[in-house]
Amino acid sequence: MKTLIREVIQLDQQARLEIEELKREKEELFNSFKEMKADLKNQQLLELEKQTKQLEVDAQILFEQRLVQYQEKNAIREANIVKQYEANKDVWLKELMDFILGEDN
To answer: Is the dihedral of CA 31, 36, 37, 41 positive or negative?
Structure first.
């Protein structure tokens, strides 16, 4: 009978040790999962930051390209206006003076 009681006590102690070991493993797995989740989140944040910076660079390049195009178009328009003014200024001045003086052609 004593032997049987000792065996039951030993089995109980062994079961308790195994349960404690399983709890420890569960806690380690949970901690590992939390670390992996944090690492993944950090990687995603870094990737998002990298993509955002690239978008900012791309937007700046596009802005600069469009600014150059706008300036070129403006320069052409301005040159055309100056050219048209130079070609017609004498006629326009005469027409303006005639209008002011009330002279009709």
So the answer is: positive
